[in-house]
Amino acid sequence: MKLIIRSPGPLTTVQDLGRWGYQAIGMPVSGAMDAPALTRGNILLGNPDNAAGLEMTMMGATVIFKDGEGAIAITGGDLQPKLNGQPVPNWTVLAVKHDDVLSFGGVCGRGFRAYLCVTGGIDVPVVMGSRSTYMKAKIGGLEGRKLTQDDELVTGQAGIFKAGISCPENLRPDYSGNKPLRTVLGPQDDHFNPEGIKTFLSAEYKISSSSDRMGTRMEGQEIIEHLKGPDIVSDAIPMGAVQIPGQGLPIVMMADRQTTGGYVKIGVVHALDVARLSQFMPGSPVKFSEITQKQGIEISKAESQALNALRTHVTEALNSKEAINPAPAQTVPQTQAQSGAMNVIVNGEKFFVTWERL
Fold it and tell me: Which end of the chain has fewer surrounding CB within 10 Å, N or C?
């Protein structure tokens, strides 16, 4: 299929599960802010877990499907999706065909970011093992940028899917805002006295409007005081690291986090709660709670079991009746691409090339 972006919304980018293995040379991981949501959408469609989809923030995009047929699954926050003007459910496989139009109404209090997963995934050039967009370096995705009006995307080869399969409620991510962010203390928690640790674990913060894909900044009245000052020799920044800079308010490192940093880190938020945090709107209240590393491992195991349970659910649904093995719609004329982009290597030097049919 081809996807035509009629309206991109405020921030829509191509994302997969990230650019892992290159932090040692300074390249951030990037990828979906809510990886559990993207992964579930891909499982529903029979895609590889790491297939690229569209991450849409706050308003969602308007997308026209062309030159084929397939299916989509919309996961993550509820941005009130509509297919051809009619409301459609999230977390469910929906068949789409030539000239179908997907649109969104915007946030309704149940999440801040939605993911449009498509059969075959979004097919853009792979850069350092990933299709994810990292806008600061202008790499990945479509020309390393957010999507704009009239952009065209194509999908890869679709697998086997069946419309109507949905992710059971008990296997969906928990986006409730009344649970604290589960955090393992360290690696520099010894830079704070017991009172500072107590403040961190008891204070209620609000998400700042200056938050972005790099970090979620907190606002609040209770300042975390440093014992040895806010600065250290720069070291690695994992997903969910909680930096405490000089002003004494936490910053949680997100998908586009830098690879190293020189502020002390009081703790590391579990990856599932980082994903949940990405679904909170600016102004939402946030608290932290302490867990042990062993408890964090058990939470990760439970997530793996949930994903396996969803795979089993999808397999059983596919086997219950005849599944759809999609082929291009024969009644729709197949048109040649009019423009495109690719990475080309000449004599060992990489070039990013764009082309247009005249």
Answer: C
